[in-house]
Amino acid sequence: MIRKIIIPVLTVIVCFSAKAQTINTNENPKLVVGIVVDQMRYDYLTRFYNKFGEDGFKRMVNEGFNCKNHHFNYIPTKTGPGHASVFTGTTPKYHGIIANDWYDKYEKKMVYCAEDDSVQSVGTESSDGQMSPRRMQTTTFADENRLFTQNLGKTIGISIKDRGAILPAGHTANAAYWFRGKSEGKFISSTYYMNELPNWVTSFNKSKTVKSYLKDWNTLQNIETYTESGADLNEFEGGFRGKETPTFPYDLKKLSKVNGGFDILKGTPYGNSLVIDFAIAALKGEALGTDNITDVLTVSFSSTDYVGHNFGVNSKEVEDTYIRLDKDLERFFKVLDAEVGKGEYTVFLTADHGAVDVPSYLRKMQIPAGYLNNKETKAKFAAFLMDTFGVDNLIENISNDQIFLNHEAVKATNKTLTEVEAIIVDELINYKNVYKVYAASTIHNSGFNSGMEQLLQKGYSQKRSGDVLIIANPNYISYSKTGSTHGSGFKYDTHVPLLLFGKGIKHGETLQKTVIPDIAPTISALLGISFPNGTTGEPLEFVLD
Ligand SMILES: [Zn+2]
Asked: What is the pLDDT at residue 23?
């Protein structure tokens, strides 16, 4: 009699604990939110700190952990590679996203990191939706969470840029959504994820939210108090078509007519507000973080990058964009507190790369800087190749500071590929504003433990990268004389924030060096799941409770 009573009780206990072990435990966050701020230099956090409120960036610093010496550890520091590296815990050498666009040696054409013509657009008649993560070769922590939870933990990726939504969310995402501007102004996706947009997305797109941002962009606070940036009118800024000076206020409704319709919002802080609006709709529409099985929401703010490219690191427009982003973060965290619960979710915030101060401004400050004359260099180089090798088709492509040689033409020179590479390296190092040049054979035949050589190696894919790799002088860019860009291995491009807060995260700060690929294994360790399959970073034990 006694046994008959005990057995069912035991069975219940065993079933309960088996579920708890295989799916999840109450100890894990209900939701992980991975935030990437496109082009956010570390010093934006410190430069604008006194302008921030208590509940945005400062809340992350005051409640969470601040890694103050956090860096990209590879070249090139660009958006596609950046987003892939944050979420895969490795570098282009392993995840294969070597640039935004690169020359594919096998397809013999330029390819885009997220393009996929085998899938169709969802939510637009345009081809802007023909995107997927298929070119990324390793998993993200969100993928590992899907595998671990038997697909019960959801993953949603959101950004203005397609690559900013797709690469973080990974291969197994339930959905990634990105913004289609022009005359449409809505969030779209691809058949990689779904055949039609869910109702909450359709309702969002039908609402007046997007249109409501076609209004004046003026500074949020009195412009006189923006003492952390240069004069509103200066020679280092671009600006919008249809407005004579790059000065506040900007009438976005009027300017949208000559700046690509809804595309103008991408280049204003309202693009970030829109992403938060949509992330909040996703949180509710998908009921994220409402049970004990961890969900993942990735949010990438692209507008910070567009504003930086247009107006430059030191502009009033950049300052206002960060002051407004701080307000948007505050709004987002309050919704997370209400919907998921304070202390029930974990957030990290980082960037996909930094940015250089406008070189023409740096020159005025007597700091070595400038612009590369690619046309002149290419002509000189072509003449050298003809003189030296007697063939005129040795170069197949030059892109992302890499030279792709025509391997058939190399054979016709009666020299080995390694010999040809070495001759080219010896020639190019003498060119104006060239800092370093490496042969691919040097990169994949030796191991570098430090310096630019190591950064280059970690960004180098044997199958996808070129035969000769060039690094320009610090502060030298191929870009317009106004606005900022990025891509190098110098500190202005590699040093970015890493802030973590919420469940499982300690309060503190460190000046110990941490690198981008450490983020994904840290989150994996927090969740007790497998590391992404190409992980090269290490979990940051000191940030975990
Ligand atoms: Zn950029």
From this structure: 53
- Catalytic site includes residue 79: yes
Query: By the 8 A CB rule, do 417 and 433 touch?
Result: no
pLDDT digits (tens, 9 = 90+) for 202-259: 999 999 999 999 999 999 999 999 999 999 999 999 999 999 999 999 999 999 999 9
Give first-to-last CA distance, the chain, whole Å. Answer: 47
Under DSSP, the state recorded for 388 is H
Give the CA count within 13 Å in the CB-facing half-sphere of 135: 29
**For the segment 286-304, what is each residue's pLDDT rounded down to a tens digit?**
999 999 999 999 999 999 9
Q: Which residue, 170, 177, 172, 178, is CA-closest to 84?
A: 170
To which residue do tokens 């899907």 refer?
A: 146
Measured CA distances, 32 to 301, 466, 520, 521 (Å): 17, 37, 11, 13
The annotation places the binding site for substrate at 100, 161-163
SS3 letters across 135-204: CCCCCCHHHHHHHHCCCCCCEEEEECCHHHHHHHHCCCCCEEEEEECECCCEEEEECCCCCCCCHHHHHH
pTM of the model: 0.94
Q: Could you say which of 77, 79, 149, 268 is catalytic?
A: 79
